User: What shape does this take?
Amino acid sequence: MYLDELYKKNDFTLSFEIFPFKKWSNKKIYEMLFELSKLNPDFISITYGAGGTKRGLETLDIASVIKDEYNIEPMIHLTGINSSKEEIDEILDEVKRRDIKNILALRGDINKDINKKIEFEYAKDLTKYIKSKNKEIVIAGACYPQGHSINSNIDEEIEHLKQKIEAGAKFLITQLFFENERFYEFKDKLVKKNINIEVIPGIIPVTNKKQLNKIISLSNASVPKDLLRMLNKYEDNKQALKEAGTIYTSKQIIDLLSYKTKGIHLYTLNNHEITKKIKDNIDPLIKLNSNII
Ligand code: FAD
Assistant: This one.
């Protein structure tokens, strides 16, 4: 299924993001995929490491399992900045062979250990290249409601986003954020600039303070006071933070539903228990909401 069509067809689309485990053969990943599949996501995206082709093949292998064993649509992430054309070609050949229909095309972050000529400087360059090789494939792009960590000038970011869409991106998934108002302001700005493709909020569960601090430090996301208070209060009590955090994230999603978002992309952090808790919280409302929209 091409995901741009899915967003058109569905009132609401719930998708998950996972990342390859360090040891792909680890049976933990099968357990996780089995548990996540029971939650009936509309699709699952798989991240792509910065280290070249082998990482790409891991991502593809997981995508094939999701597609062939669980009958769920996968979307692979693919980054350009550290890859040569030959490496991208190799991945794209596999994408065709495995009948993968959707790619989230990204720039990636430069890996200083990889010393080679840059062939895909921005995501738009990779997007254009993929399109030239495979006309059918649906390409998504990333966007940053609070600006990218290397450029917090939202107006400039939006101009670059336009180029990415012109290159072929059909829908966008956001960087994580906690303040929905920032996302709504961003959406308003996009509409003013005539950007009307689907922009799907990427939402991260707030159930592990250490992990979250690391992720937040890499993003431009502002942390509201109530979230900070909750993290400080429960940081030493794993179970309490899990309970409070899943409610907090569910509440954030409920507000996004009120805004009539067409979908949520949940960064699962490979934790199926927390994903299930959040899904259970929002599911009845999603079912009712589809009648209301
Ligand atoms: P781009 O769209 O190329 O933008 C990067 C920066 O360049 C922006 O500041 C943009 O404004 C600027 N820019 C774009 N075009 C121009 C231009 N013409 N002139 C000047 N500046 C320009 N990373 C991974 O390694 N693996 C993953 O699997 C992965 N998954 C992700 C999933 C999502 C949903 C998101 C939001 C991010 C993900 N990332 C991943 C991180 C991403 O690779 C980094 O944030 C990266 O720094 C930017 O990628 P991009 O595709 O947004 O880049």
Q: What stands out?
A: The domain at 3-292 is CATH 3.20.20.220 (TIM Barrel). The chain is about 50% helix and 15% strand.
